[in-house]
TrEMBL record:
It comes from Sphaerisporangium krabiense. Its EC number is 3.5.2.14. This is N-methylhydantoinase B. Transmembrane segments: none annotated. Residues 584-609 are annotated as: Disordered. GO terms for molecular function: 5-oxoprolinase (ATP-hydrolyzing) activity; N-methylhydantoinase (ATP-hydrolyzing) activity.
Length: 609
């Protein structure tokens, strides 16, 4: 490796982060769909000529499928490549609405890097508006599949390909506008990176790339992996339904082997994961040696940092890849589906894996991991507006994160970085409904020494007849608590009091009816009977915990008005002493939904430490 100036490494690393942020800002300001512009459900990434991810603020897709189908030597300045095919994306694309554009960066006639963006678009065809049919049995029901193609050739858009894609979309204007925004932003990012190479030279910049990746490898090895005791640890968690079969436990299992002397100190083995589902909860993760999943799961390791501040400083780039070996079961499981198995709700699996890794690490480290957190769920309505035009409102509402060994979980966070809810003012101005409440879902966070974060409580009153849609798990199972903490409350939607399933495509909602959405609360960490009673009183005062839950979940007796409760210390001490002996807590608490689906078993065989 060429000797590298550490100051230049800092300059290059800062430039990469700046370019990535500039690309995302440009997309957000010029895109047309609410999902991209307002909910920010998209990502940018920068990769070097060896297809290594250089930036670490967020995850991104992969360059491998583009280079596989289009030799680098045949690429030209101004080219833009496009794909959304799940099975031909090398694991980088999870479902068809995620459209990916890739732009090569040139210096002295050679490709030296790639700028990429992918985002969740409104509609790419398929059986239902939004291209996420919850009861799909085949990828052919989910929308238009596009393998890697050249969408722009030397700066000239391929109008035929764009016409085919927009013709297959129920929202053609939004799709065309979003794609134009992403292509233009990535081309701009490529120009910025070309300037970096022109300023410092290819050898110096690529040496900095090597240093950035190497620094991540050594930092993770030294600061994080060293904290995991050597051994073999096993844990699993579950999706609860697939949209086709009745609800049951769809297992995702990790066997973690830790050997600090090995070249790859972490081995993540997914053997024991359930067979692929009939419905759309599968994730094609066993491609390119699991490179995408390695970078997807690695942020969980940051919880092992010495302090929260240090955790926030650690980026995840290609440097984590050499530290992890992944072993996949044979074809035909939730993580190794066989085409054309449907995948549009693959968040039930890929996001659950974050929790499975956190759970197995909790077993390995004596609980020094957060409890389970919210996952992505999509809720929305579609119909015709007051002018008779079709509309689709789809929202990715967040939920509570898990309690941590040092602090409560966060309320209403979004697991996808920088994603957010749709502003009420914008929603009411654009679509025929009123948002009558948007607040915290009281008692939704799992009780614990450190309470789980709260989910949303949102009420929408329809002004015109419409159809309700939902793609959501954790409607039966809960976000688990750890180290004596309790599970949070599950996801719940009612339409005029009628409870909805987590997977719904087209439930009719009449004008005047109200949709009530309560998103998941995070699991608690540590025994709730060890929580400072004053903190429980503050939660009651702030409307986060009810008076009844303060008594039954935390063993805290409060007196006085609800807006200024006071702790009855003697009564609280006596009640907690009784509860500690009559209601001991397991290491993992999966909540009441687990016995419902497990045939009455309160805990899984893998739960004991």
């Amino acid at each position: 490796m060429t000797a590298v100036d550490p100051v230049l490494v800092e300059i290059v690393e800062g430039t990469l982060a700046s370019v990535e942020r500039e690309v995302e800002t440009a997309i957000a300001r010029t895109a047309r769909s609410p999902m991209i512009r307002d909910a920010h459900d998209f990502r940018a990434g920068i990769h070097d000529a060896r297809m290594r991810k250089l930036t670490g603020r967020s995850y991104s897709a992969l360059v491998q499928p583009v280079v596989r189908d289009f030799p680098v030597a045949e690429m030209n300045p101004g080219d833009v490549y496009f794909h959304n095919d799940v099975y031909l994306s090398e694991g980088g694309i999870g479902h068809l609405p995620d459209l990916c554009v890739t732009v090569p960066v040139f210096h002295d006639g050679d490709v030296v890097a790639f700028v990429q963006a992918f985002g969740h678009h409104d509609d790419i065809g398929g059986a239902v508006p939004g291209s996420m049919p919850s009861h799909a049995r085949s990828a052919f029901e989910e929308g238009l599949m596009v393998p890697p193609i050249k969408l722009w050739d030397r700066g000239v858009p391929n109008r035929a390909a764009l016409t085919i894609m927009t013709r297959n979309s129920r929202m053609p204007d939004s799709l065309a506008g979003d794609l134009d925004a992403e292509c233009s932003a990535c081309l701009m990012g490529a120009r910025r990176l070309a300037d970096l190479f022109a300023r410092y030279g290819r050898a110096a910049v690529e040496a900095c790339f090597d240093a950035i990746i190497s620094n991540t490898t050594e930092t993770f090895r030294r600061e994080l992996l060293a904290k995991i005791p050597e051994g073999v640890y096993v844990w699993e968690d579950y999706a609860e339904h697939d949209g086709v079969d009745p609800p049951r436990l769809h297992a995702q299992r990790i066997t973690l082997t830790v050997d600090h002397a090995a070249g790859r100190p972490l081995v993540i083995d997914f053997t024991g994961t359930s067979p692929q589902a009939k419905g759309p909860i599968n994730h094609a993760g066993d491609y390119a040696d699991g490179v995408f999943l390695k970078k997807w799961l690695a942020p969980i390791l940051r919880n092992l940092a010495d302090t929260p501040e240090r955790m926030a400083e650690l980026d995840v780039n290609e440097g984590v890849v050499p530290l992890i070996e992944m072993r996949f079961p044979a074809k035909g499981t939730l993580l190794t589906p066989v085409f054309p198995a449907p995948t549009n709700a693959r968040t039930f699996v890929i996001l659950r894996l974050l929790g499975v890794l956190a759970g197995v690490l909790a077993k390995a480290t004596g609980g020094r991991m957060p409890a389970d957190q919210e996952t992505i769920r999509y809720t929305g309505v579609y119909g015709e507006d007051h002018d008779g035009r079709p509309y689709l409102m789809r929202e990715v509402l967040g939920g509570g994160s898990g309690g941590r060994w040092y602090a409560d979980g966060e309320d209403t966070i979004h697991v996808v970085p920088d994603s957010r809810n749709i502003p009420v003012e914008f929603a009411e101005a654009r679509w025929p409904f009123r948002v009558e409440r948007l607040g915290l879902a009281r008692d939704s966070g799992g009780p614990g020494l450190h309470r789980g974060g709260l989910g949303y409580d949102k009420h929408i009153r329809m002004l015109r007849d419409a159809s309700f849609m939902s793609i959501a798990d954790r409607s039966i199972l809960s976000c688990w608590g750890v180290n004596g903490g309790r599970a949070g409350r599950p996801f719940l939607v009612t339409v005029d009091g009628r409870e909805m399933d987590g997977l719904v495509d087209d439930f009719p909602v009449a004008a005047g009816q109200t949709i009530r959405v309560r998103t998941t609360g995070g699991g608690g960490w540590g025994s709730p009977y060890d929580r400072d009673p004053a903190l429980v009183a503050a939660d009651v005062r702030d409307g986060k915990v009810s008076l009844d839950a303060a008594r039954t979940d935390y063993g805290v007796i409060l007196t006085g008005p609800a807006d200024a409760p006071a702790v009855d210390e003697p009564a609280t001490t006596a009640l907690r002493a009784t509860l500690r002996t009559t209601a001991p807590r397991p290491f993992f608490d999966r909540g009441p939904g687990y016995p419902t689906l497990s045939g009455g078993h309160p805990h899984a065989d893998v739960d004991p430490r």
